[in-house]
Amino acid sequence: MAREFGAKSFNPETVSFISSGSQPSGLPWKMLNRKLPRNILLEASDNPSTIEELSIELGIAVPYMEEEVERLVDATLLKKTGDRYVTDFFIMGKDTQLAIYKSQRQSSPERSKLLDAIASDSLPQLRDLDIVRNDMSDNDLKWWAVLHLTDDCIQQSGSYTSIYQPAKRANGEEWGIIGYEQANLPETCIMNHNGYGWGADMLWCYAPSDYGLWDRDEGISYEDTVFLADIIRNGRNLSSFSTSEQRQWKTLENRFAHADGDGNIIPDVLVIYFDNHEKIREIWRSHPLYAKVRENVDVTFGKTIEILRKNANPVLHDRLLYCASMQMLDCRMMTLHDEVDSGRLVPPEDPAHSKIGMFLVLARD
How far apart are CA 299 and CA 302, in angstroms? Predict the structure, then answer.
């Protein structure tokens, strides 16, 4: 049976998904990598459907549909309401995405100027905390400061829900997911914030979709993150490396750190101890403009929530804050566009080797 896509369904080829949080069982991706579950979720998105309706719409016999639906319910991707099933996460149509984009974009110029002023004023204090241990320019340092300050303002909002530790799902796992219909927005707002490691020591990297920074070599294993942290925390020299450590160093050399002529290790990424991380936040939050930028963010956050509420099935209203928190992260990319377009930030000349936005967070011994 050929499927005709109507007003309440999406073409699977034009929908993408993103998720965050801990995913030890492989969910949600082990369900989404198959066509039938994906089609069921698209059909039931904001469209509560019975097994029979799904069977007819998708051309799948009822017994097979029952099995797939049961698996999706167990995976917490479908929710049963009476004798009907509805997709239990946001799949945003292009109209919803455009409405959110316009709302966030309207407040972005003012927000970006405020963020830039706070970040610029804080640069000398950031350097005093010894987070820069190489020849990084103020421009490159401010790239990180603007992005991290944006995150801080979003996370300080009373509406923010952690995207890294979402609320527990019915199956006990902690992850969230959102689907997006292809929208072709006026600008690309995608930015990853990838973390490598576990627990005390983590290497983080902002990966903007523009300026040649999306495909940088940033991946690092847990073991190499621990080794890099040990090198920097203890001020180790090349001469102190064992034979196995010398081999391991080759995976880090000129990627995240380099050695000078005397064998001293110079980190090429920012180095931020936990206590200094808190001091940085205090520096920003004590700035006279911080309250004003927070107000801008809070108002923008509220408008984002209301757009989502207006365009979502009531079943999803308990997921509003997670979804809105994910959407607010688009403000990062809008800010970068504002900064570069205004000349307040300059893109790197060699983006493939740039360490802009990379930082190692460490615990002290």
Answer: 5
Q: Where does residue 264 fall: left (phi above 0), alpha (psi -120 to 50 degrees), or beta otherwise?
A: beta
> What letter does residue 348 receive in the DSSP assignment?
-
Which is it for the CA torsion 51, 53, 57, 63, positive or negative? positive
Distances 154 to 25, 115, 147, 320 between C-alpha atoms, Å: 30, 12, 11, 15
CA distance readout (Å), 227 to 234, 245, 251, 260, 263: 11, 8, 11, 18, 16
Query: What distance in Å separates the CA atoms of residue 226 and residue 200, rounded to the nearest whole number?
Result: 9
DSSP state of 264: B
Give residue 200's pLDDT band: very low, low, confident or very high (50, 70, 90). Answer: confident
Q: What is the pLDDT of residues 315-334, one digit of tens each?
A: 888 889 999 999 999 999 99
Pair of tokens at residue 202: 């983590």
**How many residues belong to the chain?**
365
Q: Give the separation between CA 323 and CA 163, rounded to whole angstroms.
A: 9
Q: 290: which 2 tokens?
A: 């911080």
> Which token pair is 315?
């079943």
Q: In this predicted model, what pLDDT tens digit does every residue of 138-175 receive, in sequence order?
A: 999 999 999 999 999 999 999 998 888 888 888 888 99
User: Which residue in this structure is represented by tokens 């492989």?
Assistant: 26
Burial 133-154 (b: 16+ CB within 10 A, else e): eeebeeebbbbbbbbbbbbbbb
Q: HSE on the CB side for 192, CA within 13 Å?
A: 17
Mode of pairing for the β-strands spanning 257-259 and 265-267: antiparallel
From CA 149, how far away is CA 151, in angstroms rounded?
Answer: 5
